[in-house]
Amino acid sequence: MMIATTASRRTLLGWLGAGASALVLSGCGAREAQARAFPKALSDAEWRRKLTSAQYHILREDGTEPPFSSPLLKEHRAGTFICAGCANALYSSKTKYDSGTGWPSFWQPLSGAVVTDTDYKLGYPRSEVRCADCGGHLGHVFNDGPKPTGKRYCMDGLAMQFRPA
Q1: Span between the terminal Cα atoms of the chain, in Å
Q2: Which of 83, 131, 134, 154 is catalytic?
Q3: What is the pLDDT along the chain (165 residues), one digit of tens a residue?
Q4: Full-model pTM
């Protein structure tokens, strides 16, 4: 009888600990971007009218597209990659490279074009990249890119459009 009570108590404590951890992690996922004011902010209804459902999912709900699905992955012309939400210039084609990940990748954004926040959606910290003008989610930045910056700005192609030079 004593063994069954101890096992039940351990199980209960385990479930309580898991529940508390889930609450803490969900709170950590709250983005700094929600508290930041962006100059080209729109209401949710305005974003839904302006964007396709796939763009809305990425830019406004922090989603992602399947790897190797973006037409921008194979875009090699000279020009500028802009935010699909607000047309803010984000990346020069001169900084684009093939990272082999399946998403358009850049080693440097244009000056003042993006902001970063920490997200914990996968349970560990990652540097999320957002448009500095509208706050749209663009992707993530990692420290495994090429010289000269060593950064890999791994972007969702649907979050951007291309403007040829």
Answers
A1: 78
A2: 154
A3: 555 555 555 554 444 444 444 433 333 443 444 557 898 999 999 999 999 999 999 999 999 999 999 999 999 999 999 999 999 999 999 999 999 999 999 999 999 999 999 989 888 899 999 999 999 999 999 999 999 999 999 999 999 999 999
A4: 0.79
Q: Which residue has the tokens 């529940």?
A: 19
d(CA 162, CA 5) in angstroms, rounded, equals 64
Residue closest to 85 by CA, chosen among 162, 163, 164, 161? 161
Q: Is residue 152 part of a domain?
A: yes
Q: Is 154 a catalytic residue?
A: yes
* Residue corresponding to tokens 């809305």: 56
Q: Domain for residue 118, yes or no?
A: yes
Range(s) of the domain holding residue 153: 31-164
17 within some domain? no
- Which amino acid, 48? R
In a domain, 138, yes or no: yes
Q: How far apart are CA 136 and CA 2, in angstroms?
A: 56
Q: How far apart are CA 132 and CA 104, in angstroms?
A: 19
Q: How many CB atoms lie within 10 A of CB 93?
A: 17
